[in-house]
Amino acid sequence: MIRLNQCDPAFKYEVAATPGGEGITTCFACAACSARCLVGELKPEYDPRRIIRLTLLGRREEVLSSPLIWLCSTCYSCAEVCPQQVRFTDVLTAIKNLAARAGYAPPSTRATARLLARQGRLLEVGEFENQKRSDLGLPQVEGAPEDFQRILGITPQAEPEEEA
Amino acid sequence: MARVSLLWVERPGLEGLEPAAVARAAGVELNSGGPVEAAVVTCPAEEAPEPLRQRLAGKPVQWLELAAEVGGGDGAHRLARAAAAVARAAGRAELATLPPVYAPQPAQKVLVAGRGLAALAAAHEAALAGHPVLLAGEEPTRPGADDDPAEVERLAAGLPAGVELASGCTLLRLAGAAGDFRAELSRRGKESFGAVVLAPGGETVSCEAELALDWSWVRPLPELLASPPAGEQDRWLQVALLAGVSRPTTAGAFRRAVEAARRLQQGDFVQVTLFFREARVASEGGERAYRAARQAGVLAVRVPEEGLVVRDGGRRLRWHDPLLDEDLELAPDVLTTAWEARAARPEFLDDPVQWPAWEHLLPDNPRFSGGRTAVSGLYILGPLRGTPPGADRRAEAAAAAGDLHRLLSGGEVAPMPSVRHTYCARCLTCVRTCPHHALGHRVDRIQPAPAACQGCGVCAAECPAEAIAPPGWSNPELRAGLQRGLALAPDPKLVVFTCAGSGRGALDALARQAHTWPAGVLFYPVPCAGRVGLALVLKALELGARGVLVAGCHHGNCRSVNGNLRAQLRVDQAARLLESLGLRPEAVRFLPLAANQPRRLARAVEEMAQEVAP
Questions:
Q1: Rounded to two decimals, what is the model's pTM?
Q2: What ipTM does the predicted assembly reach?
């Protein structure tokens, strides 16, 4: 049983005010996105329309804490078929940003952020790689973690080092 | 019997056919300019050259779209099919010598009964089309319940000269059909009209009168809009707006409810939940308004069939959300409902002897839009029909006026059916079955209304005494056509009756692709599948056909309300008869078809031809 009186009507506005989330309220629940979703085909619990509906109802905790929102492969199939220009992929990016801000980012995402912050790239380039590059006449590669630390500092992914 | 001549008009699709050879094979003479008694012409009437039409005026003529019935294929094949088709038409032309029926002139005056925008617009349009109009009602110029008063005032101020205004005068009783309505009006007595437009102004009522709501607690929507409520940051105000929960509301009422929901949602900390059974967005601006409301944050809840559980007079609402497969509950702080203009049905329409039942009068069928009803010449507009106010209502009135003008001016009117009174047993089968309400009975005889017949031929199919026929579509004519056509068609023979609304168009489309039909197929165009009837299906089998296919319109798409259902019923009846005789019931079939489904027709005919092949 969902009691609407205990839901948060402001949640949808919050999503709509986050970059990417503007289209959330136009959804009229036709399920074209769900029918087209490739992730949903492999994992039926992942249903774009359901996520939109719960967001519109104002089920803030349920949506933000759900592990399902991190499954999107950002293929934009849903955005392509949507008759109301909801752009669900972008809406979900907005929701994920809100979730990260609320501390719900999954460990893998946080680990990725930490890697970026530490070495400025996901693939670690060490002495071995640079030796090979110099053998081939290529310039040396050095990480530029400061840039990423700055970027990460202004995104919801903030304070990645905290848990490190 | 008249001697039939073939008049050859060269058409695309007839190339390579030798007119003399076709005439010889069909057993008719080829006319090369001499006098004509009866004729088969190889093109549709509307495409014949004017001199030819004048030459044939008043003579029995069968206009035959020969190219469609011949199809493609090799020379011998096409000659055989052309001969069978010409012979079929000749058989009918031979007998089409019934004396013309002199119909009385249809009455031209139009009665518009009601008030408001719908009534005034209809009176305007009918007067502009040249008909004298009587605009009758308690206060015909008062706006309808949901009309824009300024627009109504403007229309009322500029009524054309042909409109007679009868205030304080109501329609008490009505009988008849197009060209011959008899109306009884208070303070005026009995009068005759050619067409009648019913457009009552209606009253505003809540759409949810059927729900167990505590009406002392429910807030009227206009009052809420006048002083929009607000909530607080830590306690949002929950507003529930019911817009067609017990049954779908009209498109106009839905649009107004959606617009109201958007305005209420804009209040501080207000959450509006809009409940409805169907999102009725089919009105001007309806879809836009619905989208704007969602964008503003209105929560739309489509209540499923089981409906909304209302507790404590509406203080608690519970429903099942099929999207989430969960039960939802809302305890609204404010409950309101949509309001719609609803008009009561005039009492005289509830007379089952005089008028068809309401759902038959206004069938759920796209052919009966624009104010039209199943009764020729009777139009129902505005709140009584649920048409949204404004532009939709004006368009509906214009469409109705155009249609009544077409009927009364005789532009496209089918000639009156003729009744052989010596055969008629006054069983009233035709009166009951005429889908257009064109047949009435006066004292002891069947009398068609002068402008109401649409020429569908259902009466002729159902009359047990062969006493009635729309001109050109009597049983003897159709039988003679079948007999002569089938005599020439090679075995195995197959008869395909094609309805003018569907099968005929599909046949023409296939002819343009030079589709090759099996040799033994005889096409028989009829005005409506309902014209075929039981006797003709059996006659075709008796005359040597191995199969009969009746191609009619899809359900809910018949110009004659239910001619297609009637055809299906008769085909099923024939199949049962065949079965009881130990014969193949599959030899007779009904094919639901649309004019844009030529492949479906081709497949069905080929399938049947294969089955009946030896």
A1: 0.76
A2: 0.85
